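Continuing the batch. This is chain 6 of the set; chains 1 through 5 are on the previous pages. Same settings as before, nothing changed between runs. Recording input and output for traceability.
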Amino acid sequence: MVWYMYSNRPSDIHVGSDENEPLRLHGRYRRNLSNDTGNHLRLWTYHIDKNEMKKAELPIDKNKWHPSLIPGVITLISTISADGKPNIAPKSWVQMVSMEPSILMFSGSKGNTTENNIIQTKSFVVNIVSSDMAVKVFGCLQWFGSERIEKCGFTLGSSKKVSAPLISECKAHIECSLHNTLEIGSGLVVFGNIEAVSIDKNIELADENRKYELLDQILFLEDRKYAGIGKIRKI
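Output for chain 6:
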């Protein structure tokens, strides 16, 4: 059912004789109108919602959110220490911060090898993980350092702009120099200046509708659970 209402602003209206199950009208702006007195009014369309969504409270601890409300793109951060030892670590709290200049961030932990290496050598690479790497990426945390790289079978290659290596098996790479770090609670947020970006040539040349399908990114949901991007829609 649709109701129409003329007013200067929308409002939520409850109708119905049952106080326990009122009907809520949701307003949507349609167009401006003028009445005979010259006053400007707006036409709002109201839709009756007979089954208003009921909400349940969740703890503020993200580890107890089932399902996860903030999925993150799974990446492998590759770094190198001051004495030339490479390291890789899975990270999913990765986000763009600025378009101009191009800066991204990821959230890690104070004192970890990845974060220490970045502070020492001022560089890191965000390697984009695809679904065929999921088992290795989830399992790699049982090893450390060079053993992790060897056990997972990853191949390290040279980056174009930074000293940190890239992971050849990944389909895309974002090379970064350190912008700054910020300690927040138990976390250490690392900000990186984007120095170079590369992607599999087959993806770059593919039809627009197939690029994401070929990139095949995966999202971290919660412990041992991940998901693919799924069907791509354009509005």
